[in-house]
Amino acid sequence: FILVGFGNEIKTQPQDFEFFDETGYYVRGEFWTFYQQFDDALVIFGYPITNDYIDLESGRHVQYFQKARFELSDDPENPIKLFNLGQLQYTPEGGIPLPQVNNSSNCKAFPTGYHVCMGFLSFYDTHNGPLILGAPISDAEFRDGIYVQYFENARLEFRTLLPPGQKIGLSDLGKIYFEKYGRSTYPDQYEW
Description:
By secondary structure, this protein is of the alpha+beta class. It is built from 6 helices and 15 strands. A hairpin with a 4-residue loop joins strand 13 and strand 14.
């Protein structure tokens, strides 16, 4: 907050940006407004890994986070769109499908034909899954040495070695995608 003095009265104005010492990047404007809407923003988006910029390929205003990519949209009712990182990085081959207990009360069927179960379902329900994760695009599977499930915008992981309450989390798909593809659309020179 910034203190602004008017006579004897001091009023606070919210700032429309935040600097993250952890990564050395800002989140500003519409992106900051969107980020602040979530009490668990660090859990679902992570820290910023770029400043906001104009993507050279799409011409869109974007910003990468560890677990997401924000994109400024043309829709005034929904000015921020989450990039579909899950869809772009999921390949059906390479994972070992887990046996499904689809009739369990701990599972939910989705119109995409997939089920979200147990800890993944709890995370989905607790962290605004429809908006943040999108619909499931795979069932749970064993891949890269861990249990995962892909969604339109993200990938959930079950990390057995972490303490209870921290075992389910989002993969760093924002970081992975940026390292693989985003660097080529990141301007070499960017003035702040």
